[in-house]
């Protein structure tokens, strides 16, 4: 149950696009199309942003999109806005358990 | 509205026990799997445990297996986490979350968390 690998930080200017990668193994990300992404603002509970690799829950902006190739999943945020500044965590089902990434701090410059 | 409210956190000495509770409202609690997820200070999220909607299946992270027990009382709409043999590394905010999706491992609703500090 090793954590998925994410970059510690990414940054972008308002209006730009950024991509956060999430690398796992053939036992988690590579085996299941069950990758999700969570957004967490300081002092708040996480919020589901993407599920099953690329699906968006109702109410989540279409500026958020997800994809996967092999053992690596990605979250792309287009048209960056100030309120997107937060920590982002990927998560993968791993067969009767799940594993989170270490988290990526997104800074909107 | 759909809500999860954790309670029971506090400061506890290493080796002692603590029980967390999570009160659910606004949805049919007995129809959903439930999870505990924790977050150490300044660190990332760590999945802890899951329990099926009827309590028939329970799974744990290796880091807590044998020490923590997840349970639920559907008549009280409440989820529990019994934590025994606590260690300093168990210090974290503990969140309960509702599980949905094909595997019930998708966490769509989260509580606000309760802080557990293990220290002498």
Which range does the strand content of chain B fall in? over 45%
Number of strands of chain A: 9
Radius of gyration of chain A: 13 Å
Overall pLDDT metric of chain B: 96
Q: How would you portray this structure in words?
A:
The complex is a heterodimer of chains A (109) and B (120). By secondary structure, chain A is mainly β. Helices cover 0% and strands 44% of the residues of chain A. In chain A, strands 1, 3, 4, 7, 8 and 9 form a six-stranded mixed β-sheet that branches. In chain A, strands 2-6-5 form a three-stranded antiparallel β-sheet, with no helix packed on it. The mean pLDDT of chain A is 96. Chain B is mainly β and 120 residues long. Helix content of chain B is 0%, strand content 53%. In chain B, the strands form two sheets. In chain B, strands 2, 4, 5, 6, 9, 10 and 11 form a seven-stranded mixed β-sheet that branches. Chain A binds chain B through residues 1, 3, 34, 36, 38, 40, 45-48, 51-52, 57, 89, 91, 93, 96-103, and chain B through 37, 44-47, 50, 59-63, 95, 101-103, 105-108, 110-113.
